[in-house]
């Protein structure tokens, strides 16, 4: 009886947790888009100056760095970092935006920005998984939760029972009998 309750509890917890992935991923993508817009705004002058001179942004920064003093070099290093962030964030956003539901979790992990993920987690609003994608994730979470409960049960039996008791319990279909001497 306790085993069934434990399985149900872990199954429900797994379904509830995994069913939240689509909502978390949408909120993550929204914050990613906001960060990308901010970096674009920060780089707008640099990109237009590079375009006016017929140079790639990286080449523009390299030339400006050679022709400037130490203070300007610091500003250019910051602009170079912003340009690298722009390229990284844009690649992540495009990958997530164009991904299908099956590849999305893998692309999400591949392009995960820990700072954005922490921010999303801090302000995450759970949602009911009423989309097909959410229900599939909830179903997978249910299976994983029940499997985890079974693994814990097996580990507990092997740690706290003698090998003879575990073997006899498995042979009897889970019914424990007293050992005869």
Question: What does this entry look like structurally?
Answer:
This protein has 181 residues and is mainly α. It has helices spanning 2-18, 21-52, 57-66, 70-98, 104-110, 114-122, 132-160, 163-171.
Entry keywords:
single chain; 181 residues; mainly alpha
Q: Would you spell out the secondary-structure blueprint of this structure?
A:
Blueprint: H1 2-18, H2 21-52, H3 57-66, H4 70-98, H5 104-110, H6 114-122, H7 132-160, H8 163-171
Helix pairs in contact: 1-7, 2-3, 2-4, 2-6, 3-4
For this structure, the quaternary state is single chain
Q: How many beta-strand segments?
A: 0
What proportion of the residues form beta strands (DSSP E)?
under 5%
Shape: elongated
Low-confidence stretches: none
Count the helices. How many? 8
What is the radius of gyration computed over CA atoms, rounded to a whole number of angstroms?
27 Å
Order of helices and strands: HHHHHHHH
User: Largest sheet, if any?
Assistant: none
